[in-house]
Structure formats: C-alpha cells, structure tokens
Write a structure and sequence with these properties.
The protein has 566 residues and is an alpha/beta fold. It has 23 helices and 18 strands. Helix content is 39%, strand content 15%. Strand 17, helix 23 and strand 18 form a beta-alpha-beta unit. The radius of gyration is 25 Å and the shape is globular.
Length: 566
C-alpha cells in the first residue's frame, strides 16, 4: 500500500476501512459481495477504490450472502460479504448457517453503530455482536476507529479472521465493525500518515502482516496399523464417496479403492462421477431399490470419504446391514447421523490414502457383482426414460447429466433436483457439482449458482424447483448481470413435489393446501422482467435443444411444466 493510497482521505473511518480491505486482499480475499447501505459506507468506498478488489453489488443482503457462499464452494477461498447495520445482518443468516454446516469459508463484514448509540433506541441499531451464535468459526466486535488503537491491530485482526475461515474445519467468520460519522470520505483532520507510519515494511510489500501456517493432518503409526489390520481382513469391502469439494479428493479416493479392488458408490456430489474407474458405481440408488440385490450385498466393512451421501436408500441399506464403518473427512465435527461409525478419521483424504495401504482380501466376484448389476441398471434406466419423448422430471435430470459441458459447473437445488440427478444422472461430468445440502434449505439457490459461476469463471447450470425459484426470485437480477452465463432449468410442478414422498401425502384433506401449496404461476413474465432468454419445451428433444442453446449463448431460463402426481 503506497503512502498516497493510504492517505487519499484523512478520515479515521476510511483509513481503517482501507487497511482492513487491503489486508483482506493480501490474504487472498479479493472477491466482495456488497449490499448497499449507509453505515457500511467506509467499507464500500474502500472496496470500490481498491485496484485489486472484484466487486458484485446487489440490492438484497440475502442474495449477496448466498452468492458469497457459491463463490466459496467454487474456489475454497472466502469471499467477503459487506452489509450495513440492523436487520440486514439477519437476511444473511441462512447463508451463514449453510456455510457453517458445509464448511464453506466466508468473511462477514457487518457495519455497526458505535457504543454510545447501542441500546439507546437509535435508528437501525440492533444487538449485532454474537448474532450468528455458534454458526461462525470466530467473531470479533471491532471498536470504532481511533488513533489510540494501533493500525497493526486492524491488520492482525483481519489475518486471524482469514486464518480461522480457511483452516481445517473452517467456515464463516464475523467481523462487526463500528463506525462513527462522518461515514463518507470527508476530511475530519485525522493524521493518516502518522497513524500508519509504525507499520514500517508492511507498507512496501504485498504480504499479510501476520502469516499463518496450517499443519497437515494425518494419522499416527498405531492408527494406521489398526486400520490396515481391519481393512485387510475384509472380504466384502465397500467405499462410499459422499459430498467432496474437489476433483482431486475424488481421484485420490477412487485410486485407493481401485488398488484394493473395492466397489465405489459415488454420490452425485462426490465429483467422481465423471471419472473413469473400473469399480465406480454411479447407479447405486437404483440397485439398492431392489431388495434382493441389497440383501445379497451387505458389506463387511465400509470406508466413507467426505460428507454424508444424498441417497436415502444407501443410508438405510448401511443402517440395516450395520457393517464396521470408517468415516474419513477433514472437518473435526461429528458426521454420524446413524450412530454407527466405528472410526471418525479427521484427515485430508489424499493423506489418508497415502498412509493407509492395506492388502486386499476382496475377491473379484464381489466387485463385479456390483459393476455388472450397475451396468444393467444404467441400460434399463435409459431405456425407460427414452421409451417415449415425454418430458418427466427424471428425464430432465438425465438430459442435463448427458449434455452438460464438462467444463461448466452444475448447481442442484437441495430438494428433488439433487435426488433426481443422484438417481438417473449416471456419470454426470461437470467441472463442479454442488448443492446446498449442509442444512438443505430452500433459501438463496439462484444466488448461490451465480456465486459459483463467478468463482469458477465459467458457465453454470442450475436445476431448481418452482418453489425454490419463487423463494429467490429477486436473485434473477444477479443472474442477469452474471459475468458468466447461468442456465436456469426450473421444474414447475405447481408446488412442493418432495412432500409427495412423505406419509402426510396420504391425507388429502390437509396435504394439498398445507404441503403441496399450489401457486398457479409460471415464469415467463419473470424471465422477461429480468431480461433472460426464455424457453418452455414440451418434449425431451425440444428441451435438449433449448438447453444446449442456453449453455452456448446467454443467461437463460428454461421452464419445464410437469405433473406432480405423475
């Protein structure tokens, strides 16, 4: 940071904000999602004037927070979310929860009133410190800018925040920044040059003030020996790939399983379905619906990599057979909803695969029984879906999986879309396949997809239901201005299709008005309002044509109207 840049505005608020933003950039946080507001003016001005900052401005705090979440999923680097005081913070809460449960890094920069205005009835003032509770990895209530507090304090606070967001088991962190007026970059007589003078060499280089190193988490020799002894005895071993964050993690796990000759049930969010693997199973959800197959294929040990799996059938199958269960995942939090895990291994997946090298007692017949059955299931699934040129919800999922450009991203809404692609998507190959499945909320799905496109710097397909799109309709403004095209495919079955699979669906007197919630709306006018290309195909052939055109051209909304009962 040059002296001229620091002192462009001799104003305490703006000097602090400039220090804060510049240190974030030095730490690798270069993407800022900003919702307009008054109290956050110093932060917004500092971002706007920083030559290395990338900025997306959107009028909705919830949308900008979810866009920051999508960016974090794409890059595994935190974006910063900037918002003003008051209820603006609450609008970001759903995204904070999802980021926390999913372990996605985010920097929450919220502006606040100074101490003398707190708890006084001052306008737009709420109790902001601690508002996100246990859903942030770290939080700090920064004092109002003052010459009595050294400039290094601002820098070391930022450095700690970024470290806590990015370290193993990271997630969102919250910096609540108090500002007194004047908020605009007006001269208040603050001697900025004297204030930053003690920073010394920091001003002449581009490194963070404090640099953190993160240790590589691995296993001790006794743990490795115990694991290898257990795994070497298995005659019917099975690998489950749950949600993984990178293709590299998936490749490491698949190589490890193939070395042992074990079948690999690969979740739609595992980043593994586009890989070439001799033991890779991508139709396990169909296989396990066949009770005779499931009963005949109980494993005697399971190694689960990553977060939980999407398939409820797979989870029920494993709960019913209850084999010794080894769960390998980087975050330290407990992942064991079925309470059956024998080993919870907090380790980088590649490190585990390097360290744990058992011999294999698994016979070829065991693995090939999975592989052969999966191939038959894939053929029958495709034949069924293509028996007629009929545009069903699974047919849409299969068409997207078949035709998506492998360099594009794929965002799946957390309700039926992710389940449909899990079931019939097969070897879907995309740059990154993600869903907000941490807390599985309906919130912010469109905004999340835009954030993914910004982070990947490439086009993204979003498969979403009608209620989820209605819930995040104003984020179509974000999609319209996305620097990389977003193709939105909305399944409009006039209500909540997922509820039809629950026992309450048998109670006609309450189901439709309270759970089905029909709305009678379509999205043609919404697409027109936000300047999106619009298609409403009625056949698989027409859908495929519209989808391929949308991917190749501009921001597009494709509406598929289906029958919920069907």
């Amino acid at each position: 940071m040059s002296s001229d840049w620091t002192c462009a505005t001799p104003n305490a608020n703006n000097v602090w904000a400039r220090l804060l933003i510049d240190e974030l950039v030095r730490c690798g946080v270069t993407m800022f999602f900003v919702a307009p507001g008054s109290r956050s003016t110093p932060l917004t001005v500092a971002v706007a004037q920083h030559p290395e900052a990338r900025v997306i401005v959107h009028f909705d705090e919830r949308g900008t927070a979810f866009a920051a979440l999508g960016y974090g999923r794409a890059t595994r680097q935190p974006a910063a979310w900037i918002t003003t005081s008051g209820t603006a913070l609450a609008n970001g809460y759903p995204a904070v929860i999802e980021a926390s449960v999913s372990g996605v890094p985010m920097i929450l920069l919220t502006a606040d009133r100074p101490p003398e205005l707190r708890d006084t009835g001052a306008n737009q003032t709420i109790d902001q410190p601690g508002i996100y509770g246990s859903y942030v990895r770290w939080q700090f209530d920064m004092p109002a800018p003052s010459a009595d507090v050294p400039a290094a304090f601002v820098l070391t606070t930022v450095d700690q925040a970024v470290h806590r967001a990015k370290r193993q088991g990271g997630g969102p962190v919250h910096l609540n920044a108090m500002f007194r007026e004047p908020l605009a970059p007006a001269d208040d007589g603050f001697d900025a040059e004297a204030y930053v003078e003690p920073l010394g060499a920091w001003r002449d280089h581009r490194k963070p003030y404090t640099q953190y190193s993160t240790p590589r988490v691995g296993l001790g020799s006794s743990e490795v020996e115990a694991l290898e002894a257990t795994l070497s005895q298995a005659e019917r071993g099975l690998v489950v790939l749950g949600e993984l964050t990178t293709r590299e993690e998936a490749e490491a796990a698949v190589r490890w399983a193939e070395h042992l000759g074990w079948p690999v049930c690969a979740d739609v969010l595992s980043q593994a379905r586009g890989l070439q693997g001799a033991t890779l199973i991508v139709h396990h959800d169909i296989l396990l619906a066949h009770r005779a197959f499931a009963d005949a294929h109980a494993p005697d040990v399971v190694v689960h990599f990553g977060r939980r799996a999407t398939s409820k059938r797979l989870l029920q199958f494993l709960e019913r057979t209850r084999p010794p269960y080894i769960w390998v995942k980087p975050p330290p939090n407990r992942l064991d909803p079925r309470h059956q895990t024998a080993w919870q291994i907090e380790a980088d997946i590649a490190t585990f695969c390097e360290q744990v090298q058992p011999t294999s007692a698994v016979g070829r017949a065991w693995t090939m029984s999975w592989v052969d059955a999966a191939e038959r299931a894939a053929k029958q699934s495709k034949a069924h879906l293509h028996a007629a040129n009929h545009l069903t919800e699974p047919a849409v999922a299969e068409a997207i999986a078949q035709h998506i450009d492998p360099t594009h991203g794929l965002y799946l809404a957390a309700s039926m879309p992710v389940r449909d692609v899990e079931l019939v998507g097969g070897a879907v190959d995309a740059a990154l396949v993600v869903a907000n499945r941490g807390a599985s909320g309906i919130d912010g799905t469109v905004a999340s997809a835009v954030g993914l496109a910004v982070g990947l710097e490439r086009p993204v397909t979003l498969l979403i239901g009608d209620l989820a799109l209605l819930h995040d309709l104003n984020s179509l403004a974000l999609a319209r201005h996305s620097p990389h095209p977003v193709t939105i495919v909305v399944i409009n079955n006039d209500g909540g299709g997922i509820f039809s699979f629950l026992p309450i669906a048998q109670h006609d007197d309450v189901f439709e008005p309270y759970f089905g919630t029909p709305h009678g709306l379509d999205f043609a006018h919404a697409a027109a309002q936000f300047g999106l290309a619009y298609h409403r195909p009625t056949t698989v052939e027409a859908f495929t044509a519209a989808y391929c055109e949308g991917m190749a051209t501009e921001n597009t909304l494709i509406e598929v109207q289906t029958d919920r009962d069907e």
